[in-house]
Amino acid sequence: MSDYTAAPRPAARYVALIPAAGVGARMAAGSPKQYLQIGGKPMLRHALDAFRASALIAHTYVVVSPDDPCIDAIVPSDGVSVLRCGGATRMESIRNGLHALRQGVSGDDWILVHDAARPGLDAELIARLIVETGEHPAGGLLALPVVDTVKRSVAGETTTSGCTIARDGLWLAQTPQMFRYALLVRALAAVTDPAAITDDASAVEALGLAPRLVEGHPRNLKVTLPADIRIAEMYLAAFRAASTHHASTHDASTHDASTHNASTHNASTYHEPS
pTM above the 0.70 mark? Predict the structure, then answer.
């Protein structure tokens, strides 16, 4: 009789989930902010392209409202599926998205939840998060250490400084945030006060767990206010310029190496005419 208990478990997959059913009220742009043009394409498309560019991501799912009229025009033809089950809040959209995935993922699969309004993500940041989180039982998230001095305003007086908060150990959370499917479902199901849960890591922390903090990048900012669009565009332009320079430098180095190798080979095979 075969001992199936000794068989190795299949490797866990990495699946991206992007809640994109919001209306972007603080942006006051007249349309959902995830569809605003940044750097020549809709903001959401930047996030989709980042996950598609990562060889580590098995598939990407984007959660939109049932009557979203824009999503079909921007979703690429491969690697991305649309889930029309978005809710009234971000958490509700994620819960609905996870429920829709229940037949297609295992409890051990990793779910990378990412904000649609963070167009500065790239494959390198995704890889860093996955590698540094590793097999951490509580998952992990991209974040930035706080470098500015932090002030707390006087109670009831939002424009009056009451005290300075020590910034040691303070981080600004970003996304993606990655957790095993089963853990994320359990954490979100246990939430009793949605207002107290501002991101997915908050829900996991409420279970008494401590996700790993993985250093992100300032360009992975969340576009919330109109002024953020210009900042995001500046970061994207700088990133594209750096990527183009790196590619051209690499091509030049490869060409020089090939030319050198060919010259060396020709010199070594040269024979004096008789």
Answer: yes
